[in-house]
Design goal:
Transmembrane segments: 31-62, 74-94, 100-117, 149-169, 370-394, 414-432, 439-456, 462-479, 491-511
Number of strands: 0
Shape: globular
Order of helices and strands: HHHHHHHHHHHHHHHHHHHHHHHHHHH
InterPro entries: Memb_transporter_dom (IPR049453), YccS_N (IPR032692)
Membrane topology: Multi-pass membrane protein
Subcellular location: Membrane
Structural class: mainly alpha
Distance between the termini: 20 Å
Number of domains: 3
Helix content: over 70%
Organism: Streptomyces katrae
């Protein structure tokens, strides 16, 4: 993709307005917290302290809107307290020697860039703290005042955290939505299997539900009963659905058995949708009588036999467990010892440091991002002071806020920030000229602007920036700064900051396109380990660890998501495909998805522990593991992988084991051939 087209497409993406589920009560609570700290600051300490506390409360509320499963009060406290420390430290360094503030800004910016190794939520909070610190260090005039401002900033975060605790809105709502989305995705999958027996399934909703299921010890004791166990059942339902529908291991493609399978799949979709609705809203499960009747008699031996009959009975039992689990007040009790526990914030610190150290290597995208952020922030600080404008901090602040580790988000956010700033500043200026607001009315307008930003935050970055810009104009106006002292400066310096951010990425990029082959190879190797782990269960039903299959499956899913995210980022980059065209990437991705599906079909029919080992399964597992490992190396080295070992072993295989094993193993080889065909020049 050319630079012109990449810039055009990403600019459009940045200005796009998306339909999203709004949370007005949550936004109202956040705006109320902001109003409380502004009013207290104005009444007790004056406009300067009120502005500091407002920034603390504002950023603490923004932190609670991030996509994180950690408790919202913790996010608010973390944002407010870290911003207070940053502000106080920045003032101490800057007041002692103005020349020392630039090195301190470089250190803070570099650390904020590295924190992205811990995830986007931590990265966004750290970037926001650096950006707001540039403003708040200019407000106090002495060390005691700086301490007071830092205390007010921390108080803003504490107020937001207290409001979340005292006035909870839709408790466990994010976890409910994640679990309900997973069940609804499986319901859609069941219906698609009626018409396309080999339809694909994106495991992303199941992975998101798994992330949401990790809780703190305190949360584990308070989690609603309907959030226990349903995710694990959903994981077990998916392979049963696929094995029931696939003609290779399930019912024939046509005939009475296929008609019965379609009825079962339709009933399964109805049950899963009903369970998803009940979990999402905390309501009783309402199941239509026809679907219930189908599940009460799933077997019908005169229609289904063999593997399809076993899958039908297994599906009915699992769906019955899903309904029992999804019923509110079902009597299920929480056992913190069995929950997936999330580390506390103190325990998280060494884990974050470990992730950061892992990124301190040449070629790391996170390290490159940290270097770019540091360079852009320092350059913006110097340019801002060199230009004949006031409020020089707006240039580095814009750079820090728009920069992300990938090109697409950085450029789209830079365009959206400038466009939103133009509209927001223009609207706020018109209001100021017409109303001539005083200190208290300016504070009220700032709260209203922030409240609208909270409501519309998830509809697009450009929309949120409209109200953020208006919020800043009104907040500074509260302190007596006239609009004509802020508007021209903010527009010009926001443009400077965006340009510096893009220059930093153009001069020191971290393109995803050249790494696509590595991501594809990682997915291939992970899928191979998953398939080999499943085959190992057939080789030794009594001694094999079931946990090995689960661990390999999670690794394969992580590799698949990493590939999909990398492919999405690469599509917007202004670089050539470097040997992996879009068609090759799509073909190889489809083949690897089919490989994972073949392994899942094998997993759906794992033998009981009292069964005899399947002859040849151990040799096939070893051949698949070795072949996919060698194939991954070939993909990285831009060679076409070969599967001769698997092909020869499968051709000579005369195992008397269940036919489902032979058929699924043949599908594995077909999928591997699909990878080679897609990568062939």
């Amino acid at each position: 993709m050319s630079w012109l087209r990449a810039l055009r497409d990403t600019a459009r993406a940045g200005m796009k307005v998306e339909r999203a589920r709004l949370e007005p009560l949550v936004a109202l609570r956040a705006a109320a917290g902001l109003a409380i700290v502004i009013a207290a600051g104005l009444a007790l300490l004056g406009p300067g302290a009120a502005a500091s506390s407002a920034f603390g409360a504002f950023m603490a509320a923004v932190a609670t809107f991030q996509q994180s499963w950690r408790p919202r009060p913790v996010l608010a406290l973390a944002s407010g307290l870290t911003l207070a420390v940053s502000t106080f430290t920045g003032y101490l360094v800057g007041s002692a020697d103005v020349g020392l503030f630039l090195p301190m800004l470089a250190v803070w910016s570099f650390a904020a860039g590295l924190v992205w190794a811990a995830g986007p939520t931590a990265g966004i909070i750290a970037s926001g703290n650096v950006a707001i610190m540039l403003v708040t260090v200019t407000l106090p005039t002495s060390v005691p005042q700086a301490a007071g401002h830092a205390a007010m900033i921390a108080a803003g975060g504490v107020v937001q955290a207290l409001l979340i605790v005292l006035f909870p809105v839709r408790c466990w709502g994010a976890q409910r939505d994640a679990l309900a989305d997973a069940l609804a995705a499986e319901a859609d999958y069941a219906r698609r299997l009626r018409h396309d027996p080999v339809s694909s399934f994106d495991p992303e909703p199941l992975m998101r539900a798994r992330d949401a299921a990790a809780v703190t010890v305190r949360q584990a004791r308070r989690r609603p009963a309907e959030l226990h166990g349903a995710r694990g059942l959903a994981e077990r339902v998916r392979p049963v659905l696929a094995s029931l529908a696939d003609p290779a291991v399930g019912a024939p493609a046509e005939g009475p058995a296929r008609d019965r399978v379609r009825e079962l799949l339709d009933a399964a979709g109805t049950v899963l949708d009903a369970a998803a609705h009940a979990i999402r809203h905390g309501d009783p499960v309402r199941l239509p009588a026809p679907a219930l009747a189908v599940l009460k008699a799933p077997d019908l031996p005169e229609v289904l036999t063999g593997a399809p009959l076993r899958a039908a009975r297994r599906l009915a039992a699992l769906l019955d467990d899903v309904l029992e689990t999804a019923e509110p007040g079902s009597g299920r009790t929480a056992d913190p010892a069995e929950a997936r526990l999330r580390p506390t914030v103190p325990a998280l610190v060494p884990l974050v440091l470990k992730d950061v150290r892992a990124e301190l290597r040449p070629g790391s995208p996170v390290l490159r991002h940290a270097v770019r952020v540091t360079a852009a922030a320092c350059a913006g600080y110097l340019v801002g002071h060199a230009l004949p404008f006031g409020h020089a901090y707006w240039a580095p602040m814009a750079s820090v806020m728009v920069m992300r580790p990938d090109f697409t988000q950085t450029w789209s956010r830079a365009v959206a920030r400038f466009g939103g700033t133009l509209v927001g500043v223009g609207a706020a200026t018109a209001v100021v000229q017409l109303a001539q607001p005083g200190m208290y009315l300016s504070g009220l307008l700032a709260v209203l602007s922030a409240g609208l930003m909270y409501v519309l935050m998830r509809t697009g970055y450009a929309v949120s920036q409209v109200f953020v810009s208006a919020y800043v104009v009104f907040l500074l106006g509260m302190g007596g700064v006239r609009w004509d002292q802020t508007v021209p400066d903010r527009i010009a310096l926001t443009l400077v900051g965006g340009v510096l951010a893009m220059l930093a990425y153009a001069l020191y990029p971290a393109w995803e396109t050249p790494r696509l082959r590595t991501r594809l190879a990682d997915w291939l190797a992970a899928d191979g380990r998953y398939a080999a782990a499943v085959l190992g269960q057939y080789a030794d039903p009594a001694g094999a660890r079931r946990a090995d299959v689960r661990e390999a499956l999670l690794e394969a899913r992580d590799a698949r998501i990493a590939w999909q995210e990398a492919l999405a980022r690469a599509e917007g980059e202004p670089v050539r495909h470097r040997g992996l065209s879009r068609a090759a990437a799509e073909g190889a991705g489809d083949a690897l998805a089919a490989l994972g599906r073949g392994a899942m079909l094998l997993e759906a029919h794992l033998p009981d522990r009292d069964r005899d080992p399947v002859p040849g399964a151990a040799e096939l597992a070893r051949a698949v593991r070795e072949a996919t490992g060698a194939g991954a190396k070939a993909v990285r080295e831009r060679r076409v992988p070969r599967w001769d070992g698997v092909r020869e072993l499968l051709a000579d295989w005369e195992a008397p084991g269940p036919g489902v094993l032979r058929g699924a193993a043949a599908q594995l080889l077909e999928s591997l051939d699909g990878v080679s065909e897609a990568l062939r020049p």
